[in-house]
Amino acid sequence: MTPRARLLLALGAVAALALPLVLPSNYAVNVAVMILFSAFLGQAWNIAGGFAGQTSFGHVVFFGTGAYASTILHATWGWNPWLAWPVAALAGGAVGLGIGALAFRAGLRGSYFALVTLAFAEVFRILANSAEFTRGGLGILIKADARAANFQFKDPASLYYIALALVAASLAIAWWLRRSRFGAQLAAIRENEDAARALGIDVLRAKTLCMGISGAMAGAGGTFYAQKYLYIDPSIAFGVEKSVEMLLVSMIGGAGTVFGPLVGAIALGFVGEATRALTSAQGLGLVVYGMILVAIVARLPDGLIGLFARRIRRRGGRDA
Amino acid sequence: MLEVRGLTRSFGGLKAVDGVDLDVPEGEIVGLIGPNGAGKTTCFAAIAGFVRPDAGSVRFAGRDVTGHAPHLVARAGMVRTFQITQPFARLSVRENVMVGAWLRHGRRAEAEEAADRVARSVGMGAMLDMRAGDLTVAGRKRLELARALATSPRLLLLDEVMAGLNPTEVAEIVGVVRAIRDGGVTILLIEHVMQAVVSLAEHVHVLNQGRIIARGTPAAIAADPAVVEAYLGHGAAARLAGGGGGG
């Protein structure tokens, strides 16, 4: 890392830590929490979709698995949610390994893989809708009891710092992938599977493992969401909207880059808030939001990060 | 080092490779030549584990590797390149070569150093930071070579590394390949360009319609009527032998 990049990173970290102190309202802090959370889930998608090039349309399945795992342990079995949290990550990771092994063993790539992940998410949604232990379509309510020991908070700033820690951890994982042998294997697989194989890479194993990591992250995100809203149901936990959001923030920011999902989440967060504030007409905000998305995707195939990287390269720098 | 016996692979009704026997002694450069569609690339793919042979065996360094997955064959020390170059297009040349180097090096600094060294040895020292997708054809051929070489192979299977290059570039690659062999790596070379093989290989096998039709030194091969006919068509050998008198 260049000294300049180090400085920028340190400044960013300080600003992120100080942010809740300067934001004017609880609402604003809440928006910041949702942006960070979106960045975290986007990074989970980015590990598989960006770094390894395995574009999934159904990443919500890991999020939902995690959300249900910890919520059932907590609300039905009386576990402390902090203890249930790692179990949720493991559950998400296990589902990631399972879907990865099935899909990759069957040789599914590209749009076929994307469709299969979408189908898995739908299957999980339907199962959650009909099963007894998920309480079907009613969903599961977590009893409000705002104590930190209970993973519930009165002030949104505490949630903000937890979300920030999640984002920091996800950035560390992405950074490790940029530097490590495993990350190099994933990049090689993304670019050309046959060539990767010829150079001794166990493609099936690497892709499956990467889905496991990605699934564990999304699963951990599920617990955070459930503890924030104290309620989940099948369409929240396994609905296609979250899958789309995860891949959008990553692609808008720059898929396969360390900071892409964070940049994308901030950009989308601001666009979302701005369009909501500018117009009160029902649905018009969403139309503007959609148009901006189309413009970004059409004009910036490498995402917003790609735009910065091009600038830096033109000025003669490298390693953006 | 490499012993191939009775290797056979069909696609539909066509026997692309039909009972091929092939030996590559350690430390040599062995050529596998033949006209277009003779089955050379399929033969390579079957040896390196990319397609499963229907029959026959492949022994590498004393071990049976018949039908083993490509990554296992590569880890054992037998690495192929591709005729149609397969660069990791959006990665830099250095990152491309590092993918190979990571196979034998666990630490990033070591892998990077090994990649730089290998890239320089094939004449790509000045291109390390270029995107692989921006390389010329000659650059891509070198990259194929560098990436495979970075895995520290014992046997390199080179699939037409000279096709599509101009005579100057061919001469350069010939030098590079020879240097690789002198560095202790055994080489099996598929080539369409006769001249390149003649100047490099100690032994040549000629493949036609899936079968080995001749083997020997390059000089002996070039004089073999069966080989001449395979390349130039039926009756060509007789016409050539007639010294042009028969037209």
For this entry, give a set of tags.
heterodimer, A: 320 residues, mainly alpha, two-stranded antiparallel ribbon, 2 strands, B: 247 residues, alpha/beta, 4-stranded antiparallel β-sheet, 10 helices, 10 strands, 38% helix
Write a structural description:
The complex is a heterodimer of chains A (320) and B (247). Chain A is mainly alpha-helical. Chain A has a domain of 216 residues. Chain A contains 14 helices and 2 strands. Chain A has a two-stranded antiparallel sheet with strand order 1-2. The N and C termini of chain A lie close together (10 Å). The model of chain A has no long low-confidence stretch (mean pLDDT 91). Chain B is α/β, with parallel strands linked by helices and 247 residues long. In chain B, the strands form 2 sheets. A 6-stranded mixed beta sheet of chain B has the order 6-7-8-3-9-10, with helices on both faces. The termini of chain B are far apart. In chain B, helix 3 crosses helix 4 and helix 4 packs across helix 5. Chain B has 10 helices and 10 strands. The longest helix of chain B is centred in the C-terminal third of the chain and has 16 residues. Chains A and B meet through helix 7 and helix 8 of A and helix 2 and helix 3 of B.
